[in-house]
Amino acid sequence: MDCKRSTRLLRSAAQAKLDMTYQDEPYSEDEAEMSGPRKRTRKEEDSDYEEPSMGPVRAVKRSRTTKNRKNGKGSRNAGKLSQSIARLPMDMWLEVFGHLPIETLCTLLQVSKIFQDTLRSPENLAVWRKARLLRGAPEPPEHLNEVDWALLLFGPRFCEVCRRTRVHKVNFALMRRICKACTRETTMTTTEILSEYEGIRGSIYDILMSCSRLMQPTYLSNNTDIPLFNRSEVELVLGQCYYVGEPYIESRKEELMYLQAHAELCENWQKEMKLARSEEIQATRMSRLDAVKRRLTDMGYSEEDLELVYFERTATQSTPLTDRIWNNIKPKVVAAVNRFRILRMFKRLPIDYTIEDHSGSVLERRREMIETVFLQYRKSLRPAQWRELPNICAIALLPSFERLLGAPNDAHIAATDLEQVMNSEQLQKEMDRFVKEHRDQIIGTRSEDAMGYIRCKICWSTYNDFSSVVRHIHSEECSCLDENTSDASNYEYGDYAPILDFLRGSDSQTDPSKSHTNVLDNTESFYKCTSCYKWGTWRECIAHYDSDTKFHWGIAQRDLPYFVSIGIPPIPDDRTTWSCNHCTIHAEGPATRAEVIKHLREAHDVHEPSVPEDFFFIH
């Protein structure tokens, strides 16, 4: 058997164990995406590896696995792998092991006893030393050999006490890979030493090595960290001091100087390795990002389209990009690029991420087409139906439109294509699902009364009805690159009951504990803040209180209400926040309350309009 075959044999035997024990690589989403049916391992197969013969290969009938063969009994091929490995001469072992990384050598120790005996033999210690020096690791301490030292530095990343995984840091004062919880359980503070051992002197700490420090809260006046000492070492040192005395103390001081110097050297090396590993991972991420950009460029996307692709996590993972990985992440990456293009199209990107757009004419033309198609669609509906339609940008980001509007510039998009999508059942299902999910998670079973408010956690805008929240998502007021901007968890429901006393006793004759927003909108009452000059409707008073001006009331408990009714406003109300509920005249944009009432009287012969039967509030 030649050296290359031996190397492949060792790697195959160690592969399963390596995946279970060595976890140096951070979590990658590629592993979760590409997880699927795995190949049968040698443990699951009916026979182990056999030496290939020079004759022709014939098909061998697979025999049925019996209970004895599952238990390792009665198999004719049992032990053939171990026998083949045992027949290798030692010089070939040295040649094979010399080409393996030190992490693989540590894993081979746990594969089988023959690997353990061979790797721990004195003839192979030079292999361990060579592999350690290639990584720049310091010399082992006096009480550890090369193999145990390599296992401590490069072995499985789990706690030696509780077997907790992902413990990457070694405590060189304890010479153990141990988690923080177990470190605290196996150590003692100075107070604990004094309470447990009576009659000891303070000089005893001069010959004890601090293995860690207990972090103190920053609010304490003296927040210096408390040193921790190994419990077993404290017992050993105190026992030796009691029986040996001064001679042991002198020798212990010399030993402690060596241990502290060696621990400091190892900690510095560990920091350098961590920094080098971080730089290596960052370089891999950038290389993968460049590879993703090249593939997107080949698909027709411009450089401006790829400026924000690094926000997509799958494009910046710490594993190199392969054809298989690209096939798995391509839908997510392309969808993210299309999403950024649509946000640029509607100018929804934050100011910090404004990109110089050289393809603005293409995006502008697509925006004009979708706005025209959307307006025609709104006019085909009853006002009560389009009142709760999402924002046009939010609709453009739905899957049905995202593939069209976000396509590269060389893709031909016609108005008929957009009309077909707008009138499709699939888009209607997506919009209904969008509205229903947000209503169920934000409003739930609550009624839309004046007591409640809905606040956006991204831009901190406050609304009193759900229809305004639906139109707020991906609006000009709330620009965000986060793909979870439309997530219902970004909106919270609250109660304004304490400040709504100003409605009691007014001419609205409504009980605020049972008042629906439409009932309050039906009145024309205006209110003024008792602490400043601001005035407005009940909605604007609540928004005024919710702002930072709520501190200008000073004392929370007082006799005056927060707002008082003023009846007719001091100046005409020119707020364009109302729409007719009988026709689509205001589908292009809302009007003032007076204009809507005039339109209802002239066009629909409604002389006593009411909310929401004849007209309604729209933000």
Automatic annotation (TrEMBL):
<feature type="domain" description="F-box">
    <location>
        <begin position="82"/>
        <end position="131"/>
    </location>
</feature>
<feature type="compositionally biased region" description="Basic residues">
    <location>
        <begin position="59"/>
        <end position="73"/>
    </location>
</feature>
<protein>
    <recommendedName>
        <fullName>F-box domain-containing protein</fullName>
    </recommendedName>
</protein>
<feature type="region of interest" description="Disordered">
    <location>
        <begin position="14"/>
        <end position="81"/>
    </location>
</feature>
<dbReference type="InterPro" id="IPR001810">
    <property type="entry name" value="F-box_dom"/>
</dbReference>
<dbReference type="Pfam" id="PF00646">
    <property type="entry name" value="F-box"/>
</dbReference>
<dbReference type="InterPro" id="IPR036047">
    <property type="entry name" value="F-box-like_dom_sf"/>
</dbReference>
